[in-house]
Structures are given as structure tokens and as C-alpha cells.
Amino acid sequence: MVVSDTDEVSVVIKPDYDRASELKAFDDTKAGVKGLVDAGTAKIPLMFCHPPDKFKKASALDNIQFSIPVIDLKDIYKDTTIRKDIVKSVREASETWGFFQVVNHGIPVSVLEEMKNGVHRFYELDTEVKKELYTRDQMKPFVYNSNFDLYSAPAANWRDTFLCYMAPNPPNPEDVPVACRDILIDYSKHVMKLGILLFELLSEALGLNPYHLKDMGCAEWLLALCHYYPACPEPELTMGTTKHADNDFLTVLLQDHIGGLQVLHKETWIDIPPEPGALVINIGDILQLISNDRFISVEHRVLANHVGPRVSIANFFSTGLQPIPKLYGPIKELLSEDNPPKYRDITMEEFNAHFYEKGLDGISTLLHFRI
Predict the structure, then answer these.
(1) What is d(CA 210, CA 198) in angstroms, rounded to the nearest whole number?
(2) Which InterPro entries does the entry link to (predicted)?
(3) 287-321 burial, b for 16+ CB within 10 Å, e for fewer?
């Protein structure tokens, strides 16, 4: 008998436990975690149970003392002094936190709210309707499933997801469910515009010309991942999303009012509380790689919760698993004799294939590509 302890609860795993069969049975329902909740599950299946985390949980004092920067983008186009101050804030946040929030970013609150509503509408569709869209083929124009790494990760997460590439080749409208179609297309256009501005600020923060990262192709591809975290009967035993860093250049995240997002800072889990109208921005692994560790891609997670459903919309600037031959490595202008390249040149496809193969196992994908 194996016993794994969480803070207050022990999970007993019987010797004859057949994890593979439980995974397949869950996947075959095509109903995701929401299907378990709809069925009235009071005890989470063992496949969702996580081992205890070794890092400290933030105290109330930690969360006051350590909070990710909130950067106001108001008047960025009107005043060069304000822009310089914003670039300085972006630089400091990207070098020390890997995370920051932006306000006055130009996306109307009404669009943010409708985007969250659109995600709710999709997941509230009849199960039989959603089953037709359930797939593990990552190259389909619209992918809906539960846990992309279901068969490779050490433990499953209490989360369902749909994803869709929104740029440079948006899907045919008929490939996107009506429940979220119009708003997903509209919101993605807003995020692309914001992303281009953010890459300008990040370029300037690296001491490069404003268009350097955009000209490298960092802002060309956009992938929308829309997550649904149902209320969990035993949140202390599982996770909404396991500790991980993002496999992209940059992430623009819209979270709802429920919260649960945490960032690992100084070996302590710090809450990122929802800020009305704000968007959470974080540096991805590929931006850490091309900046040669100047900017940091930081591990983060989402807690499971008795309260729900929680929704979030993560927009990844990434080519994902698309077979794009372009190589990315440390930017030459940032290198010197004292600062040699720390990573080898890679394609995004190679990086993401490794990311998907290992799943959210708590180990940095970047380690695999260090020189």
C-alpha cells in the first residue's frame, strides 16, 4: 500500500490500482471534468490526486509584501516620458518576476466580460454536442478535451480546455462553435494589437529597436486556450493546473473573479488576485531563451477550489506544434564574451514536441535545450 500525504489528507492507493484503465475510461466519456461534476462526484478519482508540493504557501504578509507589478498603459502613445517609465517597469518586472498585470490596455471591459461569458456558454452546451468536438488531435482547427497531457503527466488536473489558433490564419467561422465564435474572433484581434505593443516594450526593455521581437516573428502566431475549472469536491487533493512555465514567447491571460492563480517567487507561492479590467502578462520559455535568461519564464499554477466554475482565457504567442522551420536562439545583439549563448538554436516545433511529450511534470522544458 502506498500512502501520499497532502497537508491534512492522506490518499491510499491500492496495489491493484489500474491507472491506465482509469485514464482511458475517463477519456472515453468525452465529458471531461465537468462530466464528473455533473454526475455528482463527491470523491475525486485517484488519477487526479497530486503529491504534496515542497514550496512554501504565501502568508497574508507574503501576499502584501510580494505582489506582481501592475503597469498602467494609459497615455503610452501620447507621452515619451511616460513610455520610458513604462519600459522601465516592464524591464524590472520581466527580469525579477516574469509576470505583471496591465491596466488601461485598450480592450473594453465589455469585450473582456463577453469573452468570459462565451467560455461559459461553450462549456454549458449539451454534453452530446460537445462530444462531437472532443479530440486529442492538436492540429484540428478547434480542439476540445480535458488535460492535453492526460496520458503523460504524473497526475491529471481538475480542468477542461478548448483551444484554437487565431492568427495568422484564423479558423473558418463554421469550425468554431456558435456559443463562443464571434467573441473569440473579436477578442483575439484586440489581443493581437496589445501583443504587438507589448513586444515593442519588451524589445525596448532589452535595449533593442522597438520592432526587433516583432520582426523575429514573436507576434505572428496566436493560440487561444480557454480553460474551465469546475468546483471541486476535494480541492486539497488535486490541482487546477500543475506547476509549469509557459511554452511560448508571451502569454496574455484574462482570469475571472474567482482567483486561484499563483506564481512561484523566492520559493513561495504568491497569489495573483484578479484585478478588475486587468490582464495578466507573463514571459514564456522561448522569450527567456532568446533573451539568454535576461527575462525569466516563471513557474505558476492554479489551485483547485470548492468554488466554481472558474474560467480563464490564456492567449499564447506561439506557433505551437505547427511545422515551422524557423530557428530561434539567443539574440545575437545581446551576446558578448561575458554573456555567451546559454541555449542552442531550436525550432518551436522541437521545443513544443518535448513539452507535450513530458507533460506538466514540474520540470522546466528549458533545461533540455541548455548548452
Answers:
(1) 10
(2) DIOX_N, IPNS-like_FE2OG_OXY, IPNS-like_sf, Oxoglu/Fe-dep_dioxygenase_dom
(3) bbbbbbbbbbbbbbbbbbbeebbbbbbbbbbbbbb
**CA 224-226-230 angle, 5° bins:** 170
Q: Which residues does 233 contact at the CB level (< 8 Å), separation at least 6?
A: 41, 42, 43, 44, 306
CATH (domain of 177): 2.60.120.330
How do residues 153-192 score in pLDDT, each as one tens digit?
Answer: 999 999 999 999 999 999 999 999 999 999 999 999 999 9
The pLDDT of residue 19 is 94
List pLDDT tens digits, range 245-304. 999 999 999 999 999 999 999 899 999 999 999 999 999 999 999 999 999 999 999 999
C-alpha cell belonging to residue 10: 492522506
Pick from 113, 109, 99, 120: nearest CA to 271: 99
| Model confidence pTM above 0.90 | yes
CA distance 305 to 312: 14
Contact of 356 with 138, CB cutoff 8 Å: yes
CA–CA–CA angle 161, 166, 169 (5° rounding): 135
Contact between residue 281 and residue 298 where contact means Cβ atoms under 8 Å apart: no
Q: How far apart are CA 7 and CA 237, in angstroms?
A: 9
- Per the listing, cell 487546477 goes with 240
CA–CA separation, 226 and 262 (whole Å) = 18
**How many Cβ atoms sit within 10 Å of the Cβ of residue 324?**
15
Query: Is 300:261 a contact under the CB 8 Å cutoff?
Result: yes
Burial 8-46 (b: 16+ CB within 10 A, else e): eeebeeeeeeeeeeebeebbeebbbbbbbbeeeeeebbb
Domain residues for the domain of 349 are 2-369
Q: How far apart are CA 371 and CA 360, in angstroms?
A: 23
Number of structural domains, the chain? 1
Q: Which of 353, 316, 350 is nearest to 167 (CA)?
A: 316
What span, in angstroms and rounded, lies between the C-alpha atoms of 208 and 334? Answer: 9
DSSP 8-state assignment for residue 171: P
